[in-house]
Amino acid sequence: MDIAVVHRELSNVWIVAAYSDASVVLWRLDIDHQTFSCAARAASDIHAHCVLSAASVKTNDGRYLVLTGASDGQIIVWDVSMFIAGTVDVAKPNVALQAVLKIPHVHQSGVNTLCAHVDGVDIVVASGGDDCSISLTRIGSTPPSVQSVTRNELAHA
Fold first, then answer.
1. pLDDT in tens, 34-78
2. CA of 51: how far to CAs of 102, 107, 131, in Å?
3. Which of 40, 104, 131, 141 could form a disulfide with 26 if both were Cys (CB 3.0 to 4.6 A apart)?
4. Is the whole model's pTM more than 0.85, yes or no?
5. Of 47, 72, 64, nearest to 116 (Cα)?
6. Whether the Cβ atoms of residue 44 and residue 59 lie closer than 8 Å to each other
7. Which whole-number Å values give the CA distances from 66 to 12, 33, 34, in the listed order?
């Protein structure tokens, strides 16, 4: 399991949680009432394997993106902007997160750690995996698309 703070407001904190049962959940902490509520959940078939890592980034155009990495070496990008902006009624049950980009085989096996950073209009994602490699993935932000993936196979050496 891993978690990442997506956004902090006066009365809410938005947190993404990645679980070993392959689920990804966007949680909202209501600070005033000290309660957690599930704002959205990924469909159970999006990540077919244990989700090991989570990260978030706010793009220069104001979108909130979440990235998750799984034990099959895949990274998935989710746009959670509509939840944070309040354009989706999070009080309704079974609101689904939608993957906007799937990046397969970034690592040979588990993606253990993720870090995302905005670089101009692109997003740079650093990841480390069970394969002892470090990958740097450049994602174009509008629409999300893979620009390049660079791997250091000898990161452990």
1. 999 999 999 777 888 999 999 999 999 999 999 999 999 999 999
2. 13, 13, 16
3. 40
4. yes
5. 64
6. no
7. 17, 25, 24
